[in-house]
Amino acid sequence: MYDVAVVGGGIVGLAAAHTLLSRSPDLSLLVLEKESRVAAHQTGHNSGVIHSGIYYRPGSLKASICRAGVEKLRRFCDEHGIRYQLSGKLIVATTPEDCARLDGLMERGRANGVPDLRKLSRDEMRDIEPLARGLGAIHSPSTGIVSFREVAQKIAEDIEARGGDIWINAALREVKRDAAGLHLETTRGVIDAKRVITCAGLHADRVARLFGDSPGVSILPFRGEYYRVRPGGPKLVRALVYPVPDPRFPFLGAHLTTRIDGEIEAGPNAVLALAREGYRRTDFDIGDLGEMARSRGLLRMMLRYGRTGLSEYHRSLSKTAFVRSLRKLVPELKEDDLESGGSGVRAMALDPDGSLVDDFRIVRTSSAIHVLSAPSPAATSAFAIADHIAAIARS
C-alpha cells in the first residue's frame, strides 16, 4: 500500500511527487506513467520557454504562482547543473490596436511582480532585436529558455534517489475503492494507495471519471506545428520575439524562439487535432472524435471562434500563410529559410458554455486531487503548482 500515487509522468506530476517526497522523506510514493518514458507529451513538445508572468490576469492562479515557479525552477536547475538562459523576450506591437494592448500587458506584468519590464519605441526595440519590426514593444528580460524534457528527467531521477518509485508503461485502466483505500488497476498490475493525485494532461477528464468524479470540463487537443530555421540559415532573432496576444484566446500567437540548443524555432499555430495525441495532420482517432462531438461546449466554441479556427487551419496547410504571419514581426524572414519542425499537442479544458479554461484548475474530491487544466505556463510553474497541490492535500 503506497501512501501516495501520482497518475501522470509529465513535469507537473513529477514536480508534485518530488515536492511531497522532499517534505516527507519517509513517504511511500509511486508515479504511474502510461508511456515508455516520462515527459512524453506536453512537457517534451513545448517551446522550452521560461515564462515571466506578464500575460496572466491578476488574481488568477497562473498570476499568483508563476513568479514563484520561475524561481523554484531556476533553483532546481542550478542545483542539478541544468543549462538555462534568461535570454529575454520582445512582445512586439504591429498595429495601433496592439499598441493599446501593450499598456494593459505592462500593468498586468507589474501587478504580477515581473521584474525589469520596459516599454520600447520602434527604434529602441531594434537595439535588442535588430531584425524585428513594429510600432513598439515590451522587453521582458526575465523570460528564459530551458529544456523541460531535461528538467523532467532530472526530477524523475531525483524521485527515485529519494526512494520513490516510477512505473512506465503503466496506463490506468480501472479504479476501485474500499475502506482500506484505492485500488488502481494498471497495465503493469494492481497497486493500492491511500491517496491519489492525477496529473493526466491530455487525458485529465477521462482519468477523473475513472475515479467516479465528474470533471466538469472536457479536454480538447490543440496541435501546435513548428517550423525551424534551416541549418546554416540566417540569425533572424537573438532570443525570443512574440506578437501581442489576442486577449480573446488562451494562445500567445506564432513567434520566433531561439531554443537552448541554439536552434531557431518558428510557431506554433493552434489547430483542433483529430486525436488526443494527434501530432500529425493525418492522425485520427474515432473514439476521441466521438467524445469531442458529445462535448456540450464544442459547438458553442466553434460558433464563437470559427473564423479564427479557419485561419489557423489555413496557416497549418499553407507554409506561405504561416510565414506571412511571422513576417509581421521579422520582415526579412523568407519561406526558404524554414523547414518543417516538430509539433506538440496542448490539452485545453473546455467548459460547457464553450469557453476555453485559461487558468490552472485543480480540484479535490473524496477520491483524489485532480489537475484538470494545466495550460502554459504549467511547465514554468510546475514546482509552484506542486506547492499548491501539497497545500490542498493538507487542507
- What integer is the average pLDDT? 95
Find the structural class using helix and strand composition: alpha+beta
Total number of strands = 20
| Tertiary shape | globular
**Strand proportion:** 25-35%
Q: Flag low-confidence runs.
A: none
Which bin fits the share of residues in helices? 25-40%
Query: What is the number of helices?
Result: 10
| End-to-end C-alpha gap | 22 Å
Query: Which value, in Å, is the CA radius of gyration?
Result: 21 Å
The ordered string of helix (H) and strand (E) elements is EHEEHEEHEHEEHEEEEHEEEEEHHHEEEH
Q: Largest sheet, described in full? A: 9 strands, mixed
Can you put this structure into words, describing what you see?
With 395 residues, this protein is an alpha+beta fold. Helix content is 32%, strand content 27%. It contains ten helices and 20 strands. It has helices at residues 11-23, 61-80, 96-111, 122-128, 148-161, 204-210, 286-294, 298-317, 319-327, 382-394; strands at residues 2-7, 29-32, 49-50, 84-85, 89-93, 118-121, 136-140, 144-146, 165-167, 172-178, 181-186, 189-198, 218-229, 240-243, 255-258, 264-267, 271-272, 338-350, 361-364, 369-373. The chain is globular and about 65 Å long. The model has no long low-confidence stretch (mean pLDDT 95).
